[in-house]
Every structure is written in C-alpha cells, then in structure tokens.
Amino acid sequence: MSIALGDNQYGKAETRVVRIYRDTERHEIRDLNVSTALRGDFAAAHLDGDQAQVLPTDTQKNTAFAYAKEHGAGAIEDYALALARHFTDDIASVTRARVDVDEYRWERISVNGSGHPHAFVRSGQEIRSAAAVIDAGGPVKAQWVVSGIRDVVLLKSTGSQFTGFLRDRYTTLAEASDRILATSLTARWRYATADVAWDEAFAQVRSILLERFAVPHSRALQQTLWDMGSAVLAARDDIAEIRLSAPNKHHFLADLSPYGLGNPGEVFHADDRPYGLIQCAAVRDGAPDAGPAWELPASFA
Amino acid sequence: MSIALGDNQYGKAETRVVRIYRDTERHEIRDLNVSTALRGDFAAAHLDGDQAQVLPTDTQKNTAFAYAKEHGAGAIEDYALALARHFTDDIASVTRARVDVDEYRWERISVNGSGHPHAFVRSGQEIRSAAAVIDAGGPVKAQWVVSGIRDVVLLKSTGSQFTGFLRDRYTTLAEASDRILATSLTARWRYATADVAWDEAFAQVRSILLERFAVPHSRALQQTLWDMGSAVLAARDDIAEIRLSAPNKHHFLADLSPYGLGNPGEVFHADDRPYGLIQCAAVRDGAPDAGPAWELPASFA
Amino acid sequence: MSIALGDNQYGKAETRVVRIYRDTERHEIRDLNVSTALRGDFAAAHLDGDQAQVLPTDTQKNTAFAYAKEHGAGAIEDYALALARHFTDDIASVTRARVDVDEYRWERISVNGSGHPHAFVRSGQEIRSAAAVIDAGGPVKAQWVVSGIRDVVLLKSTGSQFTGFLRDRYTTLAEASDRILATSLTARWRYATADVAWDEAFAQVRSILLERFAVPHSRALQQTLWDMGSAVLAARDDIAEIRLSAPNKHHFLADLSPYGLGNPGEVFHADDRPYGLIQCAAVRDGAPDAGPAWELPASFA
Amino acid sequence: MSIALGDNQYGKAETRVVRIYRDTERHEIRDLNVSTALRGDFAAAHLDGDQAQVLPTDTQKNTAFAYAKEHGAGAIEDYALALARHFTDDIASVTRARVDVDEYRWERISVNGSGHPHAFVRSGQEIRSAAAVIDAGGPVKAQWVVSGIRDVVLLKSTGSQFTGFLRDRYTTLAEASDRILATSLTARWRYATADVAWDEAFAQVRSILLERFAVPHSRALQQTLWDMGSAVLAARDDIAEIRLSAPNKHHFLADLSPYGLGNPGEVFHADDRPYGLIQCAAVRDGAPDAGPAWELPASFA
User: Which of B22, B119, C4, C140 could form a disulfide with B109 if both were Cys (CB 3.0 to 4.6 A apart)?
Assistant: First the structure.
C-alpha cells in the first residue's frame, strides 16, 4: 500500500500586533495576537523540498503588521477577513486561508474621574477572538466567520443543584441541592453572514451568555450551557451555531465539623484538577454548512 | 427557524492517577493524566435538566482510579481501551466513549551505579499519550486507538536551508543556506488495529521520528515533517495515519558586526513569538476511516 | 569545619479558600489563595526526624479554612494577621509565622442593568495581596503588614522618551523621543502600623500608582517608578516603604518602509523576551525596621 | 518626614542566547537564558530622569550575545563571572553587577546507536543555574558564585513516614507509616571560592542530592532535605552553604473500598494544590559572608 500526503497547512502563529490610533490627542489602542494558516498546492514543499509556491511565514507576519496599518481600523473580524482575502486572492498557490485573531482589551486609566487620553490599563483576563476562513478551492469561493470569547470565569453561589443522576458500582457522589457552580467559559459562534456590526454583536452575545448563566436555576451545567447558547441563537438571526466548552470548576464544601464549626454553604475549597468538562452546541435548523470553520490549528495533531 | 441541540459530550478531565506496582521490592510506577468524554442520549440533561441518564463525572474519576487497580498493568493504550469499553458496554445511555491518557515518564535514581528499587526521578519533559475511542452507536461497534508524543524539543545546528521560496510585496526574508532548525514536536498516529505491542511500537515510532529529523538534509520543515511521518508508516503496517504539528522555533543569528565580531553560525537569539507552525499528515492508501479519532475535547469550541 | 542547620521554615502553600457570605440574599464572595510559613524550634525535625514540635502542614490548611469561618469577614490583611497570631500565640514551638494571601476579585453579573445577588464574573487579572509576619522570638513581639498588587498591565502610547543614556562599545540602541511605555507592575508596600482601613488604603494606593503612571511625562521607567512610589508615601503617612518591580514590556515600531508605508508611531510589535526589569524602593526616613517583611518564601532558594 | 530612594537595580532579563560550537563537524550547543542586574549611582535616573550614567538594558542584552562569542566557551559560572566583571570593571557608574544564567540541557539524537554530530533533543526538564555577583562598591572588590538546579522531580514509593507530629484543635491528619514522598526540588549552593571545576562540581552535587533522597529512610521531608544538603557540604569543602526548597507534592491513597477493592499502597491521586513547602539551609561554620548572593531579582517586590 502506498503512503500519501494528507491534510497539511502552514502559517505564522501568534504575531503580536499593537495598533495605536493617534489621529487626535485621544489615542485608541487595539492589541492583537494574529495567527495565519494557509492550505493549497504545497505538495512539492513536502515531497521535494521545493519552496517555489511557499509564501514564507515571515512574509505572513509582515503582512499582519502591514494590514494593521492599511486595514486595521475596524473590528477584528474585518481585519481577519481582509487578511484571509489577501492570501486567497493574491497568492496563487493558496486555496484556503484561515486567520485567527485574539484581542486583549484595555481601558483608560482614570485620572480625576475621567479617562486619560493616552494611558491605559488592561481590563480583565477575558479574550475576544475572531476567525475568518476563506476557501477559494471550490467552484464558488466560500467564507466563514467565527467570533468567540474565552477565559470568562463565572460563579454562582447558589441557584445550582445536581440531583437525580445515574448511579453505578463506582458512584459515590452525594446529591447536592444547593452548590456553587463555577466555570471558565469558552464560547465560539459562527455567523451565517459577514454583514454584521461585529462589535455590537460581540457585546450582545457576551451579555446574553452572562445573564443566562446568572438568572435561571441550574439543574446541571449541561442545562445551563444549553440555555446560554440557545438564548444567543434566539436573539440573533445572523448566528448559525454556537459552541460552548465549560470546565466545572469544583468548589468542595470544607468539612469544619471536626473543630465544632458548622458550614452552611460558606467555606469552600476551590480544587484545580480533575474537573468536569461539559461541551455542547446549539445549531439553527437549516444553517449553512460549517465547512472548516471549527478546525483550529491547535487541534491538528 | 428552530434551534436544536448539536454536538455534545461531557466527562472528567485531568484525573491524576499514579499507580505503583510493589509486588516485589523493585517497584514500578505509572504516572497518568486521564480524561474521559462521553456521548450518547443526553438531550434531557440539556433541555430539561434531567440527569437520569447522566453518569456523574465524579463517577468517571472514581472509575479511572478503580481501573488503575483492576486493569492498570499494561500500556496506556490498553488502559484507555478498558475504560472506553466499560463506559460503552456498561452504561446504557453512552454511545461513544473517548479516553485520553497522558503518561509522564520516570527513571530510577542511580545509586552506586545501579537503579534504586523505589526511588525515581522524572525523565524528561516529553509526554507519551494514548487515546481510545469506542463508538457503539452504529450497527457495528467501532474503535480507534491513537498514540502520540509531544513536547519533543529538537534542534539541528546545521543541515537545514530555506531558499527558493515565493516572494511577494511583503517579503523581506533573506534566503538561508545554513540555519538552525528547531521545533517542539507533537505527533499522533492512528493504528489500523488494536492488536499491537504498544510499548515497543511507541519506542520504534519515537526513534524513527528523531532519526529522520536528524539525518536527511532539510530544505524546509515541511519536507522534514513529511520525511519523518512517511518513514513511520513505511516501517509499521499497523499504523494507518500519522499527523505532525511542529512550531518553527526561530533562532536568529545575532548581529555582532557593530562590535567588530564575526558570527559564522555561532551565536543565536532564540525567539519566542511569533513562530512558524507547520502541520502535515501522512496517510496510508486504503486506511480505515478516521471517524472521530482526531476530535480532541480541547478543540470542541 | 562543622556543618550547621541554617535558615529553615515550612508551611502549606496555595490553599484555595473561597468564602461566601450569605446572611442576606445578596451574597458576598472572597476568593483567596493562602500560604503559611512557620519558623521556630524545628531542629529536631531536620536532624533527627522527630516531629513532636511540628504542626503538620495539613493542620495549617485546616486552620485556613476554619479561620475563614471564624475570622474571615474583614480585609485579607486582618485575616492574615489573625492566622499569624494564632500560630505564634497557640503553638509553642513557633517563633515566627508568615501568612501570605492573594485575593482574586469578582464583580456581580449585570442583569437588566443591576448587579445580580449571587452570580459573579471574575473582574480582571490584577491580584491583591497581603502578608502578615509576626515574630515572637525576641524580647518583644513584632509584627509587619505588607500589602500589594501585581499583574497590573499598564501602557501609555505617548509621553515617554529614552534619551541621553550612557553609550559603550556594545551600545546600538537609538534614542527615542516618543515611544510606547508598557509594564506589568508589581508593587508591595509596608505599613508602619496595623491600625489601617485596609480596603480604603488599597484602593487609594492603586489609584495613585495608576495616575502617576499616566500623567507625568516619562524620561525613563526608573523615573516613572520613583514618581509612583514616592507619591504613595507622600499621600499616606502610615506606609513606611514601597517597593516596585516593573518589566519594560518592549513595543518595537514595525518597519513598514519596505512596502512603501509610513509608520508614525502606529504599528508595533509587542515582544516577549528579553525585557528590561526596573526595580526601586521609596522609603520614609526614620521608618521602622523592615525585619523579615520582604522575605518571600518563593525566594528562599 | 522625608522620602528617600531605597534599594534599586535594573537590567535585562531573560535574554535567550544559544551558542553553537562548530569548530569540528561534531557541534556542541549551549542554550542559555541570561539576566543581568546592575546597581550603582543611578539616583539621577530616578529623581531627575537623567540617563547619563545609565547603560541601557538593550546594551546589556547586546553584551550577553557578544560575550557568548568572546568568552562563551566555559561553564555558565565562568560566563556569568565574565559578564559581571565587565559591568563592574568597565562601566564607571556600576558598583554591583549580578548575572543569572539558566542552562537548558541537550543530548545528541541517537542514530544507529551513536550520537549524531549536529542533531539534538532536549534532555529533561531540569534546569541548571548559575549566578555571579560582583560588588565593587566597598574598599575591596567582593564576588560570590551560586550554582543551582531546579525542576528536579523526585518520588520514592516507599521508605517514607510521617508520624509522631504535634496535634492541636485543627489537626485531623492520620499518621502515615508508609507513604509516597515526592517533590520538585530547587537547590542552590554558594561556593567559598571561584576556583572550581564547575561542571564536575555540578554533576557531583546533583548526584549526591539524588542519592540522599533515594537511600535513607525518611521520617519527614525536613529530615530528607537536611540529609541531602549536609551531605553536599560534607563532600565538598569549596561549598559554603546550600539552600533547598521542596514542595511536598502530595499523593493521596485512593479510597477504593466502596467498590470492594483493596488498595495497599498501589493507587494514588496526585494532587496539585495546596502543597507543603519545606525549606532549609545547611551552612558551614566559619563560611564567608553571603552578602547579596541570595537576593534574586525575582524577589525584589
């Protein structure tokens, strides 16, 4: 049996682009981590070491910086689309380009009650992301935009239970009618179109996710995730699918009884590992095909 | 348009199981990080919060510890298969189980020239992995075994070039006829069968990967990866596919000329970010279908 | 020459204590990482393996949880002092106790414009810290309280220069009359007293540090740090000393000229390593002695 | 009361220098992480923003690369000393220089049973370190050399107990007559002289540390650390002091009794946090003063 080249792609990962807008004295900042991945006619590079069709990853990095000047003004979704279009339109050997952008958020330092024009402090650990994938390899050019958020650490101190579960020989867990529910949420959602007001959409999705985590009583993290995801799709017709991944960050009630102390849901041990990992998607019926939208480079091997 | 529950799975991630074999005075150790992920009939948990079909992740953790006693003796591939079989065979609501196991390696502390019977030191940063996926949801039960290695940091100080590449408006890179080539390799390979001497196979694959990195002259990391991967398939008929992911850990020649010093390939700056990221697969023609073998929980969203 | 036991201490590090206040429907949360370190008459444990005077680290962990119930209500400085007092007062073999507490901050999830009573989202990556050291080994009992903050990521996009520096044979750096100045600040300040409104003091110090980073023109990070630190001491008589450590997170102007683009301070590459590291202290004349206040367990060896 | 500038230092941290020796076809590699920190007459930089006496951190980085060419051949202790001497001898404003160097170790890739001349694989996670401090501020120039090792992960599966410890109100720990003892060792030792065969000394110290962890029965980690440290001083007259820091990486016996399984020391849960932290020093009587040898930049604030 013969051996063939299978899936392959290459690119430049984690180019750290910082863009300052200084047209007025009130500067703006966009702080980005950009990764590009190209697919196409690269068999010769693998099989023969022939680079004639290979645009260097160094060039991809240069392009990320150049585009931050030429096209950097908008939301990260637009910037990712512009880069993906460039690689598929202008480089003949490229049939598919994927551009992933993380954005770190800053807020103005408050001085005497108002935001300083050019001094900033990082606001939070949450990371906004966007991915654009353009495939020019088929009869029609296709594109996908996926936006996301991660490292959103959430906790509710009541309003969560876990009862009535399946038991087998190895089950020792007690039922919990009132527990802490905590997670570090990753959510990514795929748009059905690229005609979106990206920043407003992001803010709305984030707001819905947090509200639906907070408000309904939770009978399990599964239920809560589904409620969060389906609410996003209900609110925005332009989102075709949302995928959520949520570690169950366990908080165990400390046993204070040996010291004669009660502990009615007050003192907990926040454990690191292991953790439950709950993952689900909400999908709109009749949504356009996901194609390669969910194939992150990080999961190649 | 209505909204439906899409892909979903849940499990317990990163259970840290350490198994000591102490049947003789010469102890053995297996040090594992175990993650389980179940799919099946879990719509009620999402839609209604009904846990009647949900085996708790706490139980999955317990089972990992119990199986380390009951079935722990063999290679991690066998342990992963045993756990996956248990979940699909014994839990009615489970149609597919995936078990991922990382193994940390230890060597005996040398005392007066021989290995101590019960004292160990961690040997290296490389992590051996195994994944078993069993799908009982179709007409025939199917299974996949994927073994892997990661964090294998490799460097060759010559025997690597990068020349003749495509140039565009944004290309500034100089051709390099002699450079450092360095990476931190991730490789995973899928077996066509579960009838394998796992430990010997792992050792052989690791040895081939390193030798093929070392020996042939490299005209690009693409060529080197393909050469490494195809050599593995050529050597072992029982491997259907191998996937490789390799950051190009750039080493830039330090410019010492301002101080009147030459630098003929001697002093380099090892840079962190950005990095090239080269990924490819080698596949055997007619290999059985990969099914869900490559779908890591980490890439769900 | 004989060999003697030198400095020694032991304790429990990184106990993750979460305290929920649920006396009303509007819950409060304190999320802590607690480390204790004890010194005293522990020579027998080292020299003979005799544990008779050794309070187990497991007990220290238990005490951290119990005190979160019994004494947990106040600022982390008070909680740290209470624990340190307990160890030195109640355990005969302990002559000095050090308690370090990190606090992770949460804010309420906003629902319909108001904060939810029991659902929270982690607010930012900044970590507030407190350390209490009590030494009962001398003729008079002594105590020190050090508060701090770290992971405060700051950036100003103008108002910073670096010119007129010393040049030697190895100097190639160009003068910069307008550059990005960015850092991830660590600051710790030592109080001259324990009679402090800790939460208000923390808020004031943080505010001063940020304002003094933002406002004055910076001729070097050294000048900026001194200005930040000395302003804190000028504002609060109860602080004896402040120590600041600040990596210079370099942002290099991207060279876009090969593509015919200008770059007047707009597009930067945020580099990871190496980084400048600038450290200074501001001290009040006649301040009480620092004693062991600055000796972090992390710097023992 | 007036406010004064206190301790201050600055430098370039984590310059990643890779030095290849290619004088013959059998290349050698040294892979270093270099940090420099200078003290001296830098008050004007802080108080007035005057850089006239400030050698830029960029120059310090350049010097690290240049010295890897000019002086890089020996052990990292010699390289650190050479850099420290340069800064104190050649830069008038510098009174004290500290140079910290970490070294990452590589081994040759084995090809047909012998080591390849120019292809390497990272060998292990252990990091060798060296620090040189030279103080030219006093009447006589003084110097200190500290070598070290860290991330040495050790485990013994028997031969460890913890019994007879102090109990108080909060003590719940059971006595353990046979347990797993595991740690990730950090050790640093200060030489009494700079006339040392550094590589041989390092190998001997590492070997002693591991052997003394392995062989004697342990009644507590305190006893084991003391035994390890004092054995190093007993073996080498040129070492004045050694400091050890060792987290107690707890391995808890899994309770398998609910499933009808025994567990006679076979299956353990390796927990992450919290961990005991045991630290001690062994010091030679009459050893020269430690001066600033132990003051790591990482512990400044």
Answer: B119
Cα–Cα dist A174/A165, whole Å: 10
Residues 6+ apart with CB under 8 A from D14: C273, C274, C275, D33, D34, D35
Q: Do A285 and B23 touch, CB atoms closer than 8 A?
A: no
Q: What is the pLDDT of residues C7-48, one digit of tens each?
A: 999 999 999 999 999 999 999 999 999 999 999 999 999 999
* DSSP state at residue B215: S
What are the boundaries of each domain within chain A?
9-140, 148-301
Which residues are within 8 A (CB) of A113 and not within 5 positions of it... i.e. 6 or more apart? none
- Token output for B264: 């003929």
List of chain A residues whose C-beta atoms are within 8 Å of the C-beta of residue B129: none
Domain covering C1-140: architecture: Roll (3.10)
- Its CATH architecture, for the domain A9-140, is Roll (3.10)
Model pLDDT for residues A175-198, shown as the tens digit of each residue: 999 999 999 999 999 999 999 999
Is A250 a known active-site residue? yes
Q: Which CATH superfamily is domain D149-301 in?
A: Urate Oxidase; (3.10.270.10)
Catalytic residue among C27, C57, C116, C156: C57
Q: How far apart are CA A16 and CA C255, in angstroms?
A: 14
Does this chain's domain A9-140 share its CATH topology with A148-301?
Answer: yes
The model's pTM is: 0.97
Between the alpha carbon of residue B24 and those of residues B117, B118, B199, the distances in Å are 9, 10, 22
Q: Is D13 on the interface with B (CB under 8 A)?
A: no
The predicted-structure confidence for B158-209, as pLDDT tens digits, reads as follows 999 999 999 999 999 999 999 999 999 999 999 999 999 999 999 999 999 9
Name every chain A residue with its beta carbon within 8 A of the beta carbon of D172: 258
Q: What is the DSSP letter of A112?
A: T
In terms of Cβ atoms closer than 10 Å to its own Cβ (0-12, 13-18, 19+), residue B63 is buried
The torsion defined by the Cα of A265, A269, A273 and A276, in degrees rounded to 10, comes to 10
Domain B1-137, classified CATH 3.30.460.40, yes or no: no
Q: pLDDT tens digits for D208-235? A: 999 999 999 999 999 999 999 999 999 9
Under CATH, what is the fold of the domain B141-301?
A: Urate Oxidase (3.10.270)
In chain D, residues with a C-beta closer than 8 Å to the C-beta of C50 are 164, 219
Q: How far apart, in Å, do the first and last CA atoms of chain B sit?
A: 23
Q: What is the DSSP letter of C298?
A: G
> Is residue C12 among the annotated active site residues?
yes
Both tokens assigned to A1? 């049996």
Whether residue A227 contacts residue B47, with contact meaning beta carbons closer than 8 Å, is answered with no
